Amino acid sequence: MQEQWSAVDNWLMSALLPQDEILERVLKNNQQAGLPAIDVSPTQGQFLAMLITISGAQRILEIGTLGGYSAIWMARALPEGGKIVSLEFDPHHGRIAQQNIDLAGVEIIIGPALESLPGLVQQPPFDFIFIDADKRNNPAYLDWALRLSRPGTLIFGDNVVRNGAITDAQHPDPHVQGIQAFLQDAGQSGRLTATALQTTGIKGWDGFMLARVNE
Ligand code: SAH
Ligand code: DHB
Ligand code: MG
Q1: Does ligand 1 lie within 6 Å of residue 90's CB atom?
Q2: What ligand has the least distance to the C-alpha of 65?
Q3: What is the rounded distance in angstroms from the CA atom of residue 45 to the CA atom of residue 55?
Q4: How far is ligand 3, taken at its centre, from the CA of residue 132, in Å?
Q5: For each of the chain's 215 residues, which pLDDT tens digit applies?
């Protein structure tokens, strides 16, 4: 199936997305620097950018920068004066991302996200929060997202399906357990309206959660 999913994704990309030398160069830089190729796909990047445009978000929080590929997609959708704070544990990833991002308005904070998040409470709330780091900590990231949000904030969680692993209640992988608890917490929170969709494409079989903080 992977071959067909990739073929369709590539077809969609060439039909819908403009050729983009900067984003292609970013992926090449990441590869040369030895970063894992776990960035969002181009169609997913465009989807994130469209969510930001549609919702009118001005302040974005990203947990998991890697080489800055998703941050660049989102930064481009921001209005003048908009801002992204992106949290990254690995200083090498952060350095490469900083080289890739010479766009104003992206601030990369190096360190474990759970140590950086408390420092953000004095900032104004975020309008869009993209959770895409170590999935074992997703339940804690959801708690922080709720603290750093306002009614109407969108919370987007990447990689929530992982080849269907979530349906295995005895799954030994703490990342899968983190995703399971993240989705269950979102469903039971009472403060969120949440859904998730499965995706297939160049990144395999996966999915995302989209939640909105209720009024
Ligand atoms: N959003 C990126 C991909 C992120 S990959 C994109 O689509 O382009 C996940 C990133 O999370 C990796 O760079 C990894 O180093 C980082 N990460 C892992 N654990 C973390 C933690 N505890 N705090 C912050 N970042 C973490
Ligand atoms: C992994 C992480 C991601 O954010 C992703 O999109 C794909 C894979 C991983 O840790 O394997
Ligand atoms: Mg991801």
Answers
A1: yes
A2: 1
A3: 16
A4: 5
A5: 999 999 999 999 999 999 999 999 999 999 999 999 999 999 999 999 999 999 999 999 999 999 999 999 999 999 999 999 999 999 999 999 999 997 667 999 999 999 999 999 999 999 999 999 999 999 999 999 999 999 999 999 999 999 999 999 999 999 999 999 999 999 999 999 999 999 999 999 999 999 999 99
